[in-house]
Design brief:
- The chain is mainly alpha-helical.
- Helices cover 81% and strands 0% of the residues.
- It has one domain.
- The radius of gyration is 18 Å and the shape is globular.
- The chain starts with a helix and ends with a helix.
Length: 288
């Protein structure tokens, strides 16, 4: 059941690329709206679970500021990269976390990956490399988007490590709400500083209906549901298993991009998808 819930969260996260691509709001401002609205919607649940005197806002904010900054940069760069490359490619590249996660788990938490997790990582990442190489061959514009998504992935990996590290808190809401709110404020400040520096910031795109669908969709589906479920999974499932299964985002994103945006994946996408699914199955079958 834990893996089915995680898979649902992965699907919710995969919808983000569609909501991003239908709008034209500045990537940093869009991140701010998404995070502030998502954190506000979950705030009542966080307050209900705070409970004892040990769980007060100053202590929670001290825990939250580092992952919040990582999440703010991740979302802002992800929003930019997702508009420069096809939906499936963006989701796949940004979820290359299994490559760096073993090193972070060992360095920060002292957690070693199992042989099955190592084997699944190798199989899954061979699919990532296959798609990345094929994508550069097909379009230089897409390659730039891939590079931005890769940078976003590095910040995402650091953010996930903190989700694993803070699993001692009594509820995932107590952790994610301060993170979302601080990250949203950081993005808002970042966009404001760009405006003051003379760069025009598109605070809301021209098509108001699509922009509100984009903002509300991002806040409700991939943030309130998707990222919250991923953080919950990091509390109850081994970290490397979570990030390998999270690679399935690009399969969902490819299907959504085809159905909703008319994006037809390259032939190499299907081979990459099979390798990623095979890697995830290897990990789940041998999970402790």
């Amino acid at each position: 059941m834990r893996y089915l819930i995680l898979l649902f969260g992965v699907f919710c996260c995969a919808t983000s690329v569609v909501f991003i691509r239908i709008g034209a709001t500045d990537p940093v401002a869009l991140s701010a709206y998404r995070l502030l609205l998502g954190g506000t919607l979950l705030l009542p649940l966080a307050l209900r679970h705070m409970g004892g005197a040990a769980l007060r806002w100053p202590g929670l904010l001290r825990r939250a500021w580092a992952p919040a900054l990582l999440l703010a940069v991740h979302f802002s760069t992800w929003n930019s990269g997702a508009r420069l490359t096809p939906s499936a490619n963006a989701s796949l590249i940004v979820n290359m976390v299994p490559v760096v996660m073993p090193f972070l788990l060992l360095a920060v938490l002292g957690e070693r990956i199992t042989r099955a997790e190592a084997a699944g990582t190798v199989v899954a990442m061979s699919g990532v490399l296959l798609l990345a190489g094929g994508d550069f061959h097909f379009s230089r514009e897409h390659a730039l988007g891939d590079a931005v998504c890769f940078l976003s992935m590095l910040f995402y990996a650091g953010y996930l490590i903190f989700g694993r590290k803070n699993r001692d808190l009594p509820s995932v809401y107590v952790y994610v709400v301060p993170v979302y709110l601080l990250a949203g404020l950081a993005c808002l400040a970042w966009a404001g500083m760009q405006e003051l520096a003379g760069r025009e910031v598109v605070w809301l795109g021209p098509d108001r209906r699509l922009e509100w669908i984009s903002i509300l969709g991002l806040a409700l589906v991939p943030t309130v549901l998707g990222h919250s479920i991923i953080n919950w999974a990091l509390r109850v499932i081994r970290g490397q298993a979570v990030v390998i299964i999270n690679l399935a985002q690009f399969v969902f994103a490819g299907a959504l991009g085809f159905l909703l945006l008319g994006e037809v994946p390259h032939a190499v996408f299907y081979a990459a998808a099979l390798l990623v699914v095979a890697g995830a199955v290897t990990v789940v079958r041998r999970a402790p």
